[in-house]
Amino acid sequence: MMEQWKERLEAVRKQAMPLVLKYRAVLIVLLAGVLLLASAGHGSDVSENSTPSAVQDTADFDLASFEQQLCGKLAAVDGVGRVELMLSLEQSGEAVYAVNTRQTSSGGDSASFESDLTVVSDSSYGEAPVTVKNLLPTFRGAVVLCDGAGDANVRLAVTQAVSTVCGIGADKVTVLKLSGTS
C-alpha cells in the first residue's frame, strides 16, 4: 500500500516539475502576494467600530504611566536592581484636525480663503472634529537612577534600552548610581 503511494507521488512530481519551472516567476509573485495579505490581516487591530491602536495610544499617552512601565522593564534586566526614571519631553503629543478651505473671489484680482474645522456627528448626537493624524510626544532626554549603574555593562544596557524605547540618542540618556547602594 505504501509503495503505491510513493509511486503515485513520484508520478505527480514528474508531471508537475516542468510546469513549476515554466511558471516559477508567476508562482513566486502569487506566493509573495499571499504572504503580504496574510501578514496585513494579522497586524491590523482595526475593526469597523474602533480606531487604530496607534491612534488610541497617542490620544491616551500618560507620561507617568509610561515612566512606570519603562521602570518595570528596566528593573527586569539582569544587574539593574531598583530603578528610578525621569523623562523630559521636547513636545507633548498633539492631534491634527481636518480643515475645509474654500477660495472665494470678489470680482477683482484678489482672492480670499475661508477655513473651518471639519466636524462629524456620532450616533449619540454629539459632534467631534475629524482627526487627520495624531503626533506622538517627542522626548528630550532621560535620567535613570539604578543600583547597578556601577557596572559599565549595566549602564550600556540601560542606555540602549531607554534610547531605543524613547527614540532619543544615547548622548541624551544619563545613567547614574542610586544613592544608598554599595
Which features would summarize this protein structure in a list?
single chain; 182 residues; alpha+beta; GMP Synthetase, Chain A, domain 3; two-stranded antiparallel sheet; 9 strands; flat
Summarize the structure.
This protein is an alpha+beta fold. It has helices spanning 2-22, 24-43, 53-59, 63-75, 152-166; strands spanning 83-91, 94-97, 99-105, 111-117, 119-121, 127-129, 131-135, 138-146, 173-177. The protein folds into 3 domains: 2-43, no CATH class; 54-93 and 136-177, GMP Synthetase, Chain A, domain 3; 95-132, no CATH class.
Low-confidence stretches: 43-58
Q: Spell out the helices and strands N to C.
A: HHHHEEEEEEEEHE
Whole-number mean pLDDT: 77
- The helicity comes to 40-55%
Q: Please name the fourth-level CATH homologous superfamily of the largest domain.
A: ANL, C-terminal domain
Record the strand order, biggest sheet: 1-8-9
State Rg.
Answer: 29 Å
Number of domains: 3
Number of E-state strands:
9
**Biggest beta sheet summary:** 3 strands, mixed
CATH class of the largest domain: Alpha Beta
CATH fold-level assignment of the largest domain: GMP Synthetase, Chain A, domain 3
At CATH level 2, the architecture of the largest domain is: 2-Layer Sandwich
Q: Strand portion, in percent?
A: 25-35%
Structural class: alpha+beta
**N-end to C-end Cα span:** 74 Å
Distinct helical segment count: 5
Q: Looking at the structure, what is the overall shape? A: flat
